[in-house]
Each structure stands twice: as C-alpha cells, then as structure tokens.
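Slide 14.
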Amino acid sequence: MLSYWIGHGLAIAIGLSLGLLGGGGSVLALPVLVYVMGIETKVAIPMTLVIVGSVSLLAVIPQWRRGYVNLRLALIFGSATMIGAYLGARLAALPWITDTVQLLLFAVAMMVAAILMIRRQQRPPELTPPQSSLESQLYAPPVCKYCWLWLPTEGIGVGILTGLVGVGGGFAIVPALVLLGKIPMRQAIGTSLLIITANSVAAVWGYLGTVNLDPRLTLTLTLAAASGSLIGSYLSHRISTKRLQQGFGYFLIGIAAFVILKTLLAPPQRSKSSSLPPRHYLTASLPARQSRA
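Slide 15: predicted structure.
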C-alpha cells in the first residue's frame, strides 16, 4: 500500500514539472509506474499516455486564452504525429517488441531529451545580438525557405516514438515548431501541448484491445498530476526556471542510466498474466504488489 501513496505523490511531481518547465512529465511517469508501483511496461505505457495527455489538455487552456496556440501548425504537425502515434501503439503489440525493447528505447529517448535540455540552457545568450529573439538564442535559425514541409515527416517519427514508448515528445516538438514552423518560442510551447494531447489520444486508441487499464487508478493518478500542474503553472510566473531546467536535465540523465542498467542487468519478466486476455494485465500485477506492502 505504501507504493500506492508514493506513486501518487510522485504523480504530483510529474504534474509540477509539466506546469513549471513545460515538459518532462512523460519521461518521469513511466519509471514511476514501472519501478515504484510495479505495473507491467505494456500497461504502464498507455497509462502514461492517458495521464500526460489529460494534464497537457489542462495546461493548454491558459495558453489558448493567451493566444499562444497556432492552430495551422497544430493541424499540420499534429495530424502527422497522430498517425505515427497510432502506428507506434500497434507496433508495441508485436511479439518482438518486448518490455526490454520498450524500456531501452524509452531510456534512449529520455537521454536525448535531457541532453537537448541541458545544451539549450548552457548556450550563453550574451553571444547573440541584443535585438535577437528568445528562440534565436536557444536554436539555430532555419536553413531552408520551406522548412515547414518537413513537419509532417518529423511528426510521424515523433508520433511513433510516443505510441511505442509513451514519451510525449515535447523535447522534439518545440524545436521543430520553432525551426521549421518559424513561430515564437511561447507559441511553440502552447502549440506543443495541444499536439501532445492529440498524440496521446491517438496512441491510446491504438492500444485499445491489447491492454485494459484500471480506470480508478488511472483517474487518481491523473488528478494528482493535474493538481501538480496547476501548482507548477502558478509558480512558473514567480521563479526563474533556467537553472531548474538545467538541473532537471541532469536528473533525467541519471534516471535514464538507471533504467538502462536495471533493464540490462535484470530484464523485466512478463508475468503469466501476459498470456491471458487483456482484462487480466493490470489486475494480476497491482494487487500482488500491494499485498507485499
């Protein structure tokens, strides 16, 4: 039972990172579900998508009101990512996509996200002209006139990653919108939240019929993450997140290294319930965990 409450406490921290830093929720959610709450990877990934998608939808509302959502790019990029997310979810059902493969892919994606986050924060803004915009300080300028044409291609790749391992893809969506879509940073962040929500919906749709989630547990974790998101949004206007984001990047590297070592040294063993119908996936793993608490 202790792991149940620890998991919900960490869900609040997941929402806090989304509200405070604009990302990082999905890369924290999966390790919490797998290693803290003892949920199978095949079940934890769609649960992560439900939680992060719901919190992103909540977070996009104030961004919409402030005019920071670009519907045209959300439609171009989001439609491609939704196709990719659905395909990724269907790929996850293939027999050769084991828990070990998914966890290793997830850890690599987490490592890439952390490195990109640290590099953006370490880039000195004083080296850029005073009149330069925020996005030009964080990213290199576009190199082609019609870069936006690459958005659907990258969108499919990001979507497949979302459906396959459960990461929201914000670390790749925001740079793509800034560089290829040529929109300001604030607008890219708001638009990415809408795209992440759409990705999650498409990926969960792709998982229908392969896993069955515990609706009560999913709801309570989502509510905990949503409360953390509200707190993070409130604090984001009052504290500087630059150093916090850099430190969070190093923290993600540590978590990614842990997932890789844990997966390689002690590969996850699929329980006997994995050969049963979908409705037994979660109910066979969670009570056993709670009975030992």
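Speaker note: The two ends are 5 Å apart (CA to CA).
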